[in-house]
Automatic annotation (TrEMBL):
Domain of life: Eukaryota
Keyword set includes Cytoplasm: yes
Species the sequence originates in: Maudiozyma saulgeensis
Cellular compartments annotated: Cytoplasm; Nucleus
Keyword field: ATP-binding, Cytoplasm, Kinase, Nucleotide-binding, Nucleus, Transferase
InterPro entries named in the record: P-loop_NTPase
Protein name listed in UniProt: Phosphoribulokinase/uridine kinase domain-containing protein
UniProt cross-references to PANTHER family, sorted A to Z: URIDINE KINASE
Family: Belongs to the GLYK kinase family.
GO cellular component: cytoplasm; nucleus
SUPFAM superfamilies: P-loop containing nucleoside triphosphate hydrolases
GO molecular function: ATP binding; kinase activity
């Protein structure tokens, strides 16, 4: 396939190969598709299209789609977290590891991995436009998916980031990032380093992490157009500023590692216009 093809085209080619192989094993185990990319890189847009592709191709399978963003703490709980860590500027609002309801995520993942044969999986929905762009999650807004789930798609900007094991000799992490690094272990253990999770990874790798500022501003303009409210351009820059220490510490190692998925990982390089300039596949299992 030519590099002129889109992210979606490359992702579908990758998935068609490895999803077919997975179900040919007849293991009766769900397959998780992890999609990771910086904010605004197109992971949600492509994730939704990938969901439709897999749902239509594997019509006899139950396919579910969610975002790590949908598992953010409620606005009230986020305010409580910010107060608890009032000296940590990185936790003064949603976004980074530690600002999600991991109990809820663990519960939902348990339903997927448990292979219960009937009932519904209730996935949360998060509205980023509420509270002037601070966002909130409502218990009244849920997406119900029939069980058992055969393919579970989860996308998020830091999926696959590896927390550092800090030693006395290595003073790599201090200050605000020490809290984030400690919390990242919980996500890692639950998802990409969990031996019970059999996964395909799709990584959108930008050639310049500063592209996030432009992409995230474009996103917010669209949110305001659709929802009627959201963050100002200045608020967006301040919002993205909180993410940059995390990118600086983990992102390059994550992209070079090519091991988001436990079965196989597709890494798609994209430029500031989200055009594909490189494609690499690494099979692991």
């Amino acid at each position: 396939m030519s590099l002129k093809s889109s992210v979606y085209d490359h992702a579908c080619e990758f998935l068609d190969k490895y999803v077919d192989e997975w179900f040919s094993r007849d293991l009766d185990q769900p397959l998780v598709v992890l999609i990771s990319g910086p904010q605004g890189s197109g992971k949600s847009y492509n994730g939704q299209r990938i969901y439709t592709h897999l749902r239509d191709k594997y019509s006899q399978k139950n396919v579910a789609y969610s975002s790590i963003d949908d598992f953010y703490l409620t606005h009230e709980d986020q305010q409580g977290l910010a107060l608890q860590y009032k000296e940590n500027k990185l936790l003064q609002g949603r976004g980074l590891p530690g600002t999600h309801d991991l109990s809820l995520l663990n519960e939902c993942l348990g339903e997927v991995l448990g292979r219960r044969k009937d009932g519904l999986l209730n996935l949360p929905q998060y509205d980023k436009s509420l509270f002037s762009g601070e966002g909130d999650r409502s218990d009244d807004s849920k997406l119900s998916v029939k069980l058992p789930v055969d393919i579970f798609i989860l996308e998020g900007w830091f999926l696959g980031f590896e927390p550092h094991l800090q030693t006395v000799e290595e003073d790599l992490i201090d200050g605000d990032m020490a809290d984030i690094n400690a919390k990242l272990f919980m996500y890692s253990d639950l998802l990409w380093n969990n031996p019970e999770v059999h996964s395909l990874g799709i990584v959108l790798a930008t050639d310049e992490i500063q592209n996030v500022y432009m992409w995230r501003t474009q996103q917010e303009h669209e949110t305001i157009h659709v929802k009627g409210s959201g963050m100002s351009d200045i608020d967006v820059r301040r919002f993205v500023d909180r993410y940059m220490p995390c990118y600086e510490l983990y992102y390059d190692d994550f992209v070079r590692g090519e091991n988001l998925g436990s079965v196989a990982t597709l890494t798609i390089g994209i430029d500031k216009d989200r055009r594909v300039f490189s494609v690499k596949t690494r099979a692991i299992e």
